[in-house]
Amino acid sequence: MVTWIIRVVLAAGAVIVLITALGSRAPAAEQPATVAAxxxxxxxxxxxxxxxxxxxxxxxxxxxxxxxxxxxxxxxxAYPTSTPRPDGQGFVSAVDFGYLPSMIRIRVGQxxxxxxxxxxxxxxxxxxxxxxxxxxxxxxxxxxFGFEGSFTYRCSVHxxxxxxxxxxx
Length: 169
Hints:
Elements lengths: L1 H22 L46 H4 L15 E7 L2 E3 L2 E5 L3 E6 L8 E2 L13 E5 L4 E6 L7 E7 L1
Parallel strand pairs: 1-4, 3-8
Antiparallel strand pairs: 1-2, 4-6, 5-7, 7-8
């Protein structure tokens, strides 16, 4: 019963709003009959006037536009470079998440030194069971290769870091 009362009150309110909206509209004015106007021949036509162009005004302070580039504010990190090593020794740098270079060529009996030049802990684990153990940042590990072949290695801490040592006679 209460729902019907609410429905009737809402319907009555909607009708009142509709009547009020329609009643507040202005009545349409009747349109007079159209009469063609004949312009007078003795009145001169007005000439259009052009507004003057505004001129710049001097300011009290000199305006200096400063261009700041994001590139000039950021200093790129140093790219690792290799230090000259004695003949007979290869060098690989473990920098952040990759070995540089990822492939190195040496001869039988030569050594390869891996240096951790990054900020993370790395190691060198060969596929044929040789392992450096953890290499702290700045630390170094050396391994001598006694016979020819292709030796792949990886970082067990970061499995995506991979490299190869090619040993020729």
